[in-house]
Structure formats: structure tokens, C-alpha cells
Amino acid sequence: MIVIDVGNTNIVIGVYLKKKLRKVLRLNTEKNKKKFKFEFKSFLQSNKKILFNSKNKTCVLSSVVPSLNIFIKKIFIKENFQFYIVSPKKIPIDAKINYNLNQIGSDRVANYIAIHNKKISDCIIIDFGTATTFDVIKNNQYFGGLIFPGLKLSMNSLISGTELLKKSKISKTKKIIARDTISSIKAGFYFGYLHAINGTLKQIILENKFKPKIYITGGFGEIFRDKILFKPIYNKYLTLEGIRVIGENLQDA
Questions:
Q1: For the chain, how many structural domains are there in total?
Q2: Is 124 found in the same domain as 228?
Q3: Are 217 and 127 spatial neighbours (Cβ–Cβ below 8 Å)?
Q4: Over residues 68-77, mean pLDDT
Q5: In which band, very low, low, confident or very high, does the pLDDT at 119 lie, cut at 50, 70 and 90?
């Protein structure tokens, strides 16, 4: 099974064999549509043996960029794949989502389904993507969540709105006080986000009076994993896992 997670920054393709993730491929989506479509086709062609020689010719797409869905679908249908698009309104699993289904991203639903499949009753999922999202699972149900700007998006906004500041790599930082501009930006982003994350976790737990497991995922999750409170579990490919579970149930429906 091939699962695809299309985000505003990256497209991540996972190749599963017997429920195990065997290969992950990643392509940047921050390009104009025409250029991206050309690069995507070239990308698939260069990985044809991995992607198109699968015995289980099923592809499941989760996308928060709907304008690319038909384009991707045509490619896989041409290769004789069964093709499914994850729809929050049509999840073939007995799982309750207390959220406006017209507005929730399919990636957030996939994260929830991955946790639901693990039979974790209470959980907070933090996904470090283009946006940083918190999703709350309480009593096995998707209870709600919140969104704030992701690190890369915030960095781009800061640099584009200033004349003298230059872009810096976002990374883990040991000290909060810096003595040059680049180090100051690194410290500001690292410690600013770290304390925002921990403060948000405390507030969610206080309001809901529960003891959830904490799962973190997404590209920047790794640099925060050992500083986030409540001993989080880091799963880089949680979204792909959820898409796979949805896909298996769509096949059986």
C-alpha cells in the first residue's frame, strides 16, 4: 500500500508492506503548481520500482492542498491502483470526531485514527508541520484542538517583514541569552516555541482534568522531544500510520 500525505510544505509518500513502513520519500511542495507537477512526475518516475511494482496496488491520499488531488489521482489510476482520498466525513471506522468536519484537515484526522488504532483513550498529539497543531483525544473521542503558526512559517514571516535580519536554521539551542543576531533568532524560536508548547499542554490538561499520553510528530518534533513535559512519545510518521489504517478499512468497506 502506498500512502501519501500532502501538506503545504512537503509531500510525504510511505510504502507499506504487510503493515510495516518500508520506505519513505519526501518532496517539497512550496513551488508554483506547474513546476511542482513537473517535479512530482519526475520524482515518481525516478522511484518507479519502489512505488509502482507493489503487489497491493492501493494508494491512499490525505491532502490539505485539494488543488493537487485530481492530478495525483490521475497518475495512480493510470498505473492501475485502487485510489482513495481520505475524507473526514467518510471515515470507515467507529471513531467520534467532535469538530466541524468541513474544516478539519485530513492529516489531523489521520493522526487521531493512528492513536485510536493503538487503543489509547486519552492523548494529546502535537504535530509540527506548516502549522503547529494540538489535537486532544479524550475517552477515545476526538475532543478538539488548536492551531498556531509553525516554526518555518513564523521564520519566513519574520525575515520577510524585516530588512536587516537574515534567515537562520531552526535548531535546538542550549542557552536562551545570545550575543549575535543569528543566535538570538535561534534562541527565540527554540525557547519561545518550547515554552508555548509546554504552557499549552499544561492548560489543556488543567481544563480537561485528565492524564493523557503525549505524542509528537512532524519534522521539528525531534528537536523538542527531550524538553517537552510529560515524557512525550515521538513518532515521526504518525500521520502515515493513520492514513494506512484508514486505507485498510476503506478496502474492507
A1: 2
A2: yes
A3: yes
A4: 94
A5: very high
58, 2 Cβ separation under 8 angstroms: yes
Q: What CATH number is given to the structural domain containing 53?
A: 3.30.420.40
Answer for the pair 74, 61: CB distance below 8 angstroms, yes or no.
no
Q: Encode 24-58: b = buried (16+ Cβ within 10 Å), e = exposed.
A: ebebebeeeeeebeeebeebbeeeeeebbebeeeb
CA distance 77 to 195: 46
- The answer for 80, left when phi > 0, alpha when psi is -120 to 50, beta otherwise, is left
> Left (φ > 0), alpha (ψ -120 to 50) or beta: where does 216 sit?
beta
Average pLDDT in the chain: 91
12-26 pLDDT, tens digit each = 999 998 889 988 999
* Residue 126: strand pairing partners: 134, 216
CA-nearest of 4, 8, 242, 6 to 132 is: 8
Residue 247 above 80 pLDDT?
A: yes
User: How many whole angstroms separate alpha carbon 86 and alpha carbon 5?
Assistant: 10
* Residue 22, CA atoms < 13 Å, CB-side half-sphere: 10
Under 8 Å between Cβ of 123 and 111: no
What DSSP string runs through 145-213? EEEEE-HHHHHHHHHHT-SS---------S-S--SSHHHHHHHHHHHHHHHHHHHHHHHHHHHHT---E
78 and 28 share a domain?
Answer: yes
Task: List active site positions.
Answer: 107
pTM beyond cutoff 0.85: yes
Supply the Cα-derived Rg of the chain in whole angstroms: 19
Query: Which among 68, 85, 102 is the end of a domain?
Result: 85
Q: How far out from the chain centre does Cα 124 lie?
A: 14
Determine what percent of the chain is predicted with pLDDT higher than 70. Answer: 98
